[in-house]
Specification:
alpha/beta; six-stranded antiparallel sheet
């Protein structure tokens, strides 16, 4: 099994975590495909993806085509036994998929068909789901619609956010590959067609989605904060229109005593924000160019924060 030539396709940290685990487990990763380097940070530095960094660390050939469906001659030369994808970021054509000797596989971080698409982890948190998981399915041109070969499930903890849940799912993906990929190569897994019942698409998170919605109930607001933390971080606008990032919040009550967006309490114990349908405590906050602060630390440097109205 370990001599099967695997080409791994992925881009973010969750993919890199799995890639390194597979390398350490002895899987024969002969090449890696990832997205092009992106300019990041305040200095706009051209930065490779996390998957690219792992490929470099282990001296594995790494390809970064702008459009894989147009630039895949290198795959013809490799003649892979398997194309394995985990959060790559491009829809792959039938022509490219056909280059995999075994049916190509995709790992997806949801319990399909719930949350097909680019942002399944964020959506599970935003919807307040109690469970999620990883599915190993046939990769087809239609988005996350292939037959499922295996799945694993985990509970979503109340204190999970996007960062913590991503790490837990990355570990689950490692377990899945170690357990089921050898069985797949031995043709011992029976594919199950996906139902369309319960289908929800998890669309890519946009810049606009990072702006927290004040016109909702406290539970929904807290779930939105969780779905964006730690990266990229949801925000509200201060009076000077700068972004106040909020990385953690909790439900206080369902009272409506202040203006929507008003900080109705600000002291050393708590910072309380009025929503349309209740109030929440803001527990970890960050002003532009400043460090993340607990509510107590934030109040110490902003003790005139009460009655400010956020937008």
């Amino acid at each position: 099994m370990l001599d099967k030539k695997i080409v791994f396709l992925g881009t973010p940290y969750i993919s890199a975590y799995l890639l390194e685990s597979m390398i350490k487990s002895g899987f024969n990763i002969v090449a890696v495909i990832t997205q092009e380097d992106k300019r990041r940070g305040r200095k706009n530095i051209l930065t490779p993806s996390e998957v690219s960094n792992i490929a470099s660390k282990y001296n594995i050939p790494c390809y970064k085509p702008a459009k894989l469906n147009r630039e895949f001659d290198f795959l013809k030369e490799i003649k892979p036994d398997l194309l394995l994808t985990f959060a790559y970021g491009q829809i792959i054509s039938d022509e490219v998929l056909s280059l995999s000797k075994y049916k190509p596989l995709n790992l997806h971080a949801s319990l399909l068909p719930r949350f097909r698409g680019a942002s399944p982890i964020q959506y599970a948190l935003r919807y307040g789901d109690k469970k999620t998981g990883i599915c190993m399915m046939e990769m087809v041109k239609k988005l996350d619609a292939g037959d499922i070969y295996a799945s694993k499930e985990i509970d979503i903890n109340e204190d999970d956010n996007y960062t913590s849940l991503s790490l837990r799912l990355a570990n689950l993906a490692c377990d899945m590959v170690n357990e089921y990929l050898p069985l797949y190569f031995e043709n011992k897994l029976v594919p199950q067609p996906q139902s369309e019942e319960g289908l929800i698409y998890a669309y890519m998170i946009s810049k606009e989605d990072e702006h927290l919605n004040l016109n909702q109930d406290p539970v929904s607001f807290v779930n939105q904060v969780r779905s964006l933390a730690e990266i990229p971080g949801g925000y509200l606008l201060l009076n000077d229109f700068s972004k106040l990032k909020i990385y953690k919040a909790s439900v206080k009550d369902y009272s409506t005593n202040g203006k929507i967006g008003e900080i109705i309490i600000a002291n050393k114990s708590e910072i309380v924000l009025q929503l349309e349908k209740g109030t929440v405590r803001l527990e970890i906050l960050q002003k532009p160019g400043k460090n993340k602060l607990t509510n107590k630390e934030f109040f110490n440097g902003n003790n005139n924060f009460q009655n400010e109205v956020l937008k």
